[in-house]
Amino acid sequence: MAHETAGDPVSGLKWTRRTTVKVAEELCKLGINVCPQTVARLLKAMGYSLRVNHKKLAGASNPNRDEQFRHITELRERCAADNVPLISVDTKKKELVGTFRNPGAKWDRSPELVNDHDFRSDAEALAVPYGIYDPRANAGTVFVGRTADTPAFAVDCIEKWWRTEGCKRYPDAEALQILADGGGSNSCTARAWKFNLQHRLCNRHGLRVTVAHYPPATSKWNPIEHRLFCEISKNWAGRPLDSFETMLKYVRTTRTSTGLRVRAHLVRKTYETGVKVTDAQMRELHITPNSDLPKWNYTIEPM
Predict the structure, then answer these.
(1) Alpha carbon 274 to chain centroid distance?
(2) Cα 92 to Cα 64, 72, 141, 142, 146, distances in angstroms
(3) Chain segment 252-298, per-residue pLDDT in tens
(4) Which end of the chain is more exposed for a tag (fewer CB within 10 A), N or C?
C-alpha cells in the first residue's frame, strides 16, 4: 500500500488508487483471507477515505492578474460611493432543449425518463442563456437566445435590460459599469463587442460605459457565476429542460434566502456568426483605453 497511497498533510486524510477488491486479492496472496467489505472497514479505521477528482487547478496565472483584481475592487467601491450602476454579465452554459438528462436530483415518486444519448440532432434547439446580474439590487435577468452567442446578441441583451429595468432602477444615471469575462461573446479582444456597445448602447441611450474584464482563467470570480448562475442550476437540477417554457419557468422561479429575484426572456431574433468589424469602423469608436492594463479596461463615450 505504501506506493499506492496519497494524502493531505493538513487534514491527515489518506487515500489509495487501489480498489478494496484488489487489496483483498493481494492480502489473500499473503495468506490473509479477508473480504472487500472488511478491507473497506479497516481502511476507514486507518484514516483512508474515498476521494473524487476536484476541479481546483487553475490555468496559467497571468502576471497582471492581481493588479486587475485590485482595479476591479476599486471600481466596485467607486461605483457604490458615486451611485453608478454596475452589472456583471456572462453567458451561462448552453443547454440542449429536449428530453435530455440534467445533472442533479429531485424528490419524486419515480424517475423521469430521458434520452440515453445527448445528440445535438435530437434537440429542439440549443438554448443560449445570457445573464445580467445587478449586485446592488440582488436581481438577475436572463435572456435565452435560440441561435448563437455573438457580441451583437450580448449587447442587445444588455441594451434591453437597460431599457426595461436599468434606466428605471437608476433614472439619474449617466454611466454604466460592466464586469465581464475576458472571452466569449463579450471578449476583451472582440471588435464586434465594442462596436455594438458604442452604437447600440452608448449612442442610443447617451450612456458612458466602462468595461472591466476578468483575467483569463478567473471567470469564477465574476459575481454572476456564484450569485446567479449557480442558483439557477440548483433550481432546475434533475429536471429535463424539455422546452423553452420549462427553462424560462425555472429561471424565473429561482429564489434565495438573501432576496435574489430573477427575470427571464426568450430572444427570437436570429444572430449571424462571423460578422467582421473593419479597421475604419474601429477608428470611428469613441473609446478610451485605461492607462492601467488597457487591454482589459476601457471606457466608451456616446457620440
Answers:
(1) 23
(2) 26, 21, 12, 9, 13
(3) 999 999 999 999 999 999 999 999 999 999 999 999 999 989 999 99
(4) C
pLDDT category of residue 13 using cuts at 50, 70 and 90: low
CB 172 within 8 Å of CB 166: no
Beta strands in the chain (DSSP E): 5-7, 14-16, 86-91, 95-97, 125-134, 139-145, 175-180, 208-213, 261-267, 287-289, 297-300
What is d(CA 92, CA 170) in angstroms, rounded to the nearest whole number?
26
Count CA atoms within 13 Å of residue 298 on its CB side.
Answer: 20
**Across 71-124, where does the E strand assignment appear?**
86-91, 95-97
pTM for this entry: 0.81
Q: What angle do CA 79, 157, 204 make, to 5 degrees?
A: 75
Location of C-alpha cell 476541479: 55
Residues in a beta bridge with 263: 141
The residue among 71, 86, 66 whose CA lies nearest residue 291 is 71
User: Hey, which residues does 95 pair with through a beta bridge?
Assistant: 127
Evaluated on CA atoms 172, 174, 177, 182, the torsion sign reads positive
Angle between helices 36-45 and 20-29 (to 10 degrees): 100
Chain centroid to CA 298: 22
Tens of pLDDT, residues 125-171: 999 999 999 999 999 999 999 999 999 999 999 999 999 999 999 99
Cell of 264: 427571464
- The H or E element that residue 130 is part of is strand 125-134
Cβ burial of 115 (10 Å; 0-12, 13-18, 19+) is middle
Cell of 239: 429536471
Please tell me the distance from the alpha carbon of residue 113 to that of residue 94, in angstroms, as a whole number. 21
